[in-house]
């Protein structure tokens, strides 16, 4: 059977220059940055995506290496392979540019941990970054691309420049893109375990897999922590090779972040239910028009969250109205996963059950993410 490139890892990125940020932007100067990922699917070869999408100056990459991860910043030296870009081991990305490496002829499997090391010889400026990468990254001075372990490294809680891996797989391989906010990205699940709900759901599938395009703090309607979801459709879903299905969870930050930003004053710009419904309807329409199967999700509970200003009576009322619409017959999706019901406290349904609460009242722990994954009818994901 003919093979083609299929996405096996994705990481949605944030513009560090936007005015509101939940994460500390940063740059690098003459450093090696080493980051790991776990493949959602396998193939006979792979290629790596790098991005300077939100950079304001050229990004010079003095070298990039791919290796099998051992533990922490460690790599298997026998697997260490220089990446090339149009035949060159160095590449400069103009501001706004993205690139993909030349193919690496190496069989890889689902669940395999790989490490990408980048030597950044100049001052990069603020980086195009990911809020919640697969695992902690590492940075050390100078060119340490081939080092087996990066001793004395600075730990990086955010991801930088590394946006994806494609694998060469049978051309009939189909995947789902999980698209949305922190509940998609897996914020507060255990780093290095791939325990977000999309990742755990993906391990239930007999065919195909799921890649994540979540941004923690992302909103449906408003730019802020990342571009608004409606503006990310083309780049983060439609351009992903192999996509046939989309899983969506979005809206909590539209309801909660206005209060967090205005605290202690009450929020003035929480969208009403009709506005969120209109945005979700537009989202579903654009994705379905592209021929994709679109699976919506009810908005998860967050009453009692520890974050000042996020939990407001107005926001909670809108969440209940939107969820009622999503559970009814008039929504525009091919199907809806009742994410909220899977993790809600039965006695206080606006709150996350204690055993699923990551500790802040807004996010799920590993068990909560598993509860959502287990609540999905796999017949919805005939990939």
- The number of E-state strands comes to 21
Number of helices: 8
Radius of gyration over all CA atoms, rounded: 20 Å
Report the sheet with the most strands, covering strand number, pairing sense and barrel closure. Answer: 6 strands, antiparallel
Q: Quaternary state, please?
A: single chain
Structure description:
The chain has about 375 residues and is α+β, with helices and mostly antiparallel strands. It has a six-stranded antiparallel sheet, with no helix packed on it. A five-stranded parallel sheet has the order 16-15-17-18-19. It has a four-stranded antiparallel sheet with strand order 1-14-3-8, with no helix packed on it. The chain is globular, with a radius of gyration of 20 Å. The two termini are about 15 Å apart.
Tell me briefly what this model is.
With 383 residues, the protein is an alpha+beta fold. It has helices spanning 182-185, 197-202, 229-238, 252-262, 273-289, 313-327, 339-343, 366-375; strands at residues 3-10, 29-38, 46-51, 59-61, 63-68, 81-82, 91-93, 98-100, 113-123, 129-130, 137-141, 154-156, 159-160, 162-170, 175-180, 209-214, 243-249, 293-297, 335-337, 344-345, 348-352. A 6-stranded antiparallel β-sheet has the order 6-5-9-2-11-12, with no helix packed on it. A 5-stranded parallel β-sheet has the order 16-15-17-18-19. Strands 1-14-3-8 form a 4-stranded antiparallel β-sheet, with no helix packed on it.
